[in-house]
């Protein structure tokens, strides 16, 4: 259930064997995660509300996924109530202390990433291992984290467990991943649970077949026991797999690494050749090229600035339609909470108590609907900000990368007393639902609700617009810094193109150095 990354790598000049650096989630990241998990669990918490709320109980759930989400939300609540870490801070500790907190969910749920510095034969060779959130993680952000790391990995090992090898969750994740990167190795752990070698081979064959049916023809299935590997006698299958990685796989990775280095080096040399060729062209041709590049640069700069203009379109549209949508949702909730079966006391006092409780539940339901509505418009604003970022920076950046986060901090904030006072004015006879009193109460309640909804929508719209502009300012600042670097590069480029006698000495020196380094490294370049 733990939703954090763990990186195991060789010690460096700042970290010795057994040191661990633990990065705690930022307040903004934690707030978004709480909102997402709470929403999927039927709640409307954010960080502040979860911290203040009464302790969550593990209610009966219909599915394992629901149970896991609720357990994770409860762990988050316990964690934020303790105030045990500073959000966004990195803590250095020893391996034992890290193992202590990593094993406790109400600590581990606050960890964004742990880097374990560990000296071993395989890490000494430059290998790093990244353990990502698994398929049982409880929200989409955790899955995205795993996918991003897998994309960048040289080898992807998928670990499943013997007693539920290639589960539905495994199949679902691999189905999603195979277009990006199919597993190089499907590792069946806890193979010591097999009754005999025939049963174990049956499970291996089953996993092999499932991989092939899911289009992972090149994936290699490996069975081992991490538990036995830690015992004095060890696990032969584990040892065999490690030996295979350190010999055959290491050799393949080295070839791949050389090929990638060769490609990058050749690309750089080609770029330098292009610069040298341009530098030898007549000045008139270079000036013409400079004018073309100057125009292109200015057009892009103008387009980027246009993409960063404030647009409150989605908020205005939301303001125009949200009142009617909310009142329809509230009407449905009103019918579910206040009906013949919920207000049926034997005397007036009992019925008064029941209708007050029902109205209180109704307003709690209104708060839930309100938070869902805010979450939906916040998602639209995030999509809008993301689209603006893609136009400027391309697909490589996310809002989280740039510390751009959008909150929904406006509550519905309607006290139960405002409706309970109306109920006191009605005659709560046994015929309440049939003599017109119920209809009159509902009319009064929704007249007040409509006024309140319009007022809260206006407050929320102003808050969202202010928040969006603040986040847009962050993006603009990042773009400004990026543009400043690009402007300096552009200035030097134009200076080179318009110089009567451009200095090609640094270019020639760089080319010679790259070729010499390629010879030393055994790389082939043209």
TrEMBL record:
InterPro entries xref list: Dynamin_N (IPR045063), Mitofusin_fam (IPR027094), P-loop_NTPase (IPR027417)
Coiled-coil portions: 468-495
Entry's localization field: Membrane
Location of the Dynamin N-terminal domain: 2-190
Gene Ontology molecular-function annotations: GTP binding; GTPase activity
GO-annotated cellular components: membrane
Keyword annotations from UniProtKB, A to Z: Coiled coil, GTP-binding, Hydrolase, Membrane, Nucleotide-binding
Main location: membrane
Source domain of life: Bacteria
UniProt-listed Pfam families: Dynamin_N (PF00350)
Gene3D superfamilies registered for this protein in UniProt: P-loop containing nucleotide triphosphate hydrolases (3.40.50.300)
Xref: PANTHER family: SARCALUMENIN, TRANSMEMBRANE GTPASE FZO1
Protein name (Swiss-Prot/TrEMBL): Dynamin N-terminal domain-containing protein
